[in-house]
Design goal:
Elements lengths: L1 H4 L1 H50 L6 H10 L4 H32 L6 H7 L3 H16 L3 H23 L5 H22 L6 H11 L3 H10 L1 H14 L2 H14 L4 H9 L1 H4 L7 H30 L6 H27 L3 H59 L1
Length: 405
């Protein structure tokens, strides 16, 4: 019974319940949106969502990764408050960058018919950046309960809003405004619940550390995470937004497969600062739970899609079979990269994500033009397997070096 009283167990349980709850609510949201928007407009909705996530990566400069590293390694509550305040100052700068990138894309590169939807949503840029900042900071602060609220809160608010729309006007513009509005409300609420202090000198220190910690991660993310989003957008480019919607829906359905290792890594981030390696029992537990989740997923996938999404979404089934294996490998990569993150190994993280990004781009360009969404799903597996292999290589090298010391 002692394990149930353990703080880490309680935190991991809270975050796991929130993550699974958020994924369940995400599933409910996808059902409502697919039913009321239709498969074509649903593809447009997911295209805009991925576009904002993709462009967000170019605006952060690694500041929030650095802030997370600093608060995780700082014991003084007063100094932590100043680090949080400094990260909030940088949220404003990153928001301006994000808005400019989106404006530039819409006016100079985008040729589709969604411009009227994208432009008003740029007003939500500060909330989107702030949400990304908080998701990082709360891990470093070990405020797992607030992190749980951040994960599940916007989805609860969004679902309540969608239910309201069902009896009024269920349109793409309204859905998008409520989606980003829900994120804004919960994010701003949590920001004012955690204490912070603005300090110019601390901001300068954060920028100084960013060169060695956050910026290398940022460069890696441009290759790694951005290439994953680009892989999705290529489906829209070479096929259409309907196939793009099928592919992204398959990612939504199969995402829970990799959640447990990621959650364990998040809850143990402060412990990783002082540990020489990840305890074997942690890896074994994550493995057993993840494989069990995968087997259950494969057994229920087909009837699940037919029951909740109807036969018009049948193309999602083979895609989800493939992407599930990708999420399994990605989850384990996340577990080991949290260890590298806690140790401040930004350069190794950069090399890992850059390598994965290059592999993802090669696989996507080779497979998507000919095989469409199926090609994107296979590219997801190749990418995630490469991610795990590279991260584990640097993790193994790190603990071997520590053993010698």
């Amino acid at each position: 019974m002692r394990i149930f009283q353990n703080k880490k167990f309680k935190q991991a349980s809270a975050l796991y319940i929130a993550s699974i709850g958020a994924m369940f609510l995400g599933f409910v949201i996808s059902v409502l949106n697919t039913r009321y928007l239709g498969k074509d407009v649903y593809g447009d909705y997911k295209f805009i969502e991925v576009l904002f996530s993709f462009t967000l990566l170019f605006s952060t400069m690694g500041f929030f990764n650095t802030g997370t590293y600093l608060v995780a390694n700082e014991k003084s509550d007063f100094v932590q408050k100043k680090i949080i305040g400094s990260s909030l100052i940088l949220v404003l700068f990153s928001s301006i960058v994000l808005a400019l990138i989106l404006l530039g894309y819409v006016f100079f590169f985008y040729e589709g018919n969604l411009r009227e939807y994208i432009l008003p949503l740029i007003l939500f840029a500060p909330a989107i950046v702030l949400n990304h900042n908080l998701e990082n900071l709360l891990q470093g602060l070990n405020k797992i309960y607030w992190l749980s609220v951040l994960k599940i809160g916007p989805k609860i608010l969004f679902i309540l809003s969608l239910i309201f729309l069902m009896y009024n006007s269920f349109s793409l513009m309204y859905v998008l405004i409520l989606f980003y509005g829900s994120i804004a409300v919960i994010t701003v609420y949590i920001t004012f619940k955690i204490k912070f202090k603005f300090d110019l000198e601390t901001t300068k220190q954060l920028l100084h550390h960013n060169r060695d910690v956050g910026f290398p991660i940022f460069i890696g993310a441009l290759f790694g995470v951005a290439s994953g989003h680009l892989s999705s957008l290529l489906v829209s480019h070479f096929n259409n937004n309907t196939d793009f919607g099928f592919f992204v829906l398959s990612l939504t359905i199969s995402a829970p497969i990799g959640v447990m290792p990621t959650i364990i890594g998040s809850t143990m981030m402060k412990d990783f600062v002082v540990l020489n390696k990840i305890p074997a029992k942690v890896v074994k537990s994550a493995t057993a739970l993840s494989i069990g989740a995968l087997v259950g997923f494969l057994l229920i996938l087909e009837p699940f899609v037919y029951f909740f999404y109807t036969e018009q979404y049948e193309p999602v089934i083979p895609l989800a079979y493939i992407t599930a294996f990708g999420f399994l490998m990605h989850g384990f990569g996340d577990l080991f990269i949290k260890f590298l993150y806690a140790k401040g190994q930004g350069k190794n993280m950069r090399i890992s994500t850059m390598g994965v990004g290059i592999i993802t781009l090669i696989a996507s360009m080779a497979l998507i033009p000919s095989f469409g969404a199926i090609g994107a799903s296979i590219a997801k597996v190749v990418s995630s397997t490469s991610y795990f292999a590279l991260v584990y290589f640097f993790y193994a090298r790190s603990i071997k070096y520590q053993d010698r010391c």
